[in-house]
């Protein structure tokens, strides 16, 4: 069974046992998280699409860790002016493991 969930402004196609890196969640490591914004469910040949969400469909996941992505470097450069500004950014994320998908 596959599902498309929405969290952190993004959509993810998941199945049981998948490990995802999603936007930071306030939950503690080891806690169970439920995603109620399910956009689509696929079970065998049967596909159910929500308008926009599927009522009563829930995806449960376990929080594995909180960490940060690799650094992204940002460079602002002005030509012919001998001016360059370098910055870096590391986004926080939460790693979760999908444990159950229910209708």
UniProtKB/TrEMBL annotation:
| Entry-linked SUPFAM superfamilies | L21p-like
Q: Which UniProt keywords apply?
A: Ribonucleoprotein, Ribosomal protein, RNA-binding, rRNA-binding
- Among its keywords, does the record have Protease? no
GO MF term set: rRNA binding; structural constituent of ribosome
The entry's family comment says: Belongs to the bacterial ribosomal protein bL21 family.
Protein purpose: This protein binds to 23S rRNA in the presence of protein L20.
Q: Quaternary arrangement and interactors, per the entry?
A: Part of the 50S ribosomal subunit. Contacts protein L20.
| Protein name per Swiss-Prot or TrEMBL | Large ribosomal subunit protein bL21
Q: Which gene encodes it?
A: rplU
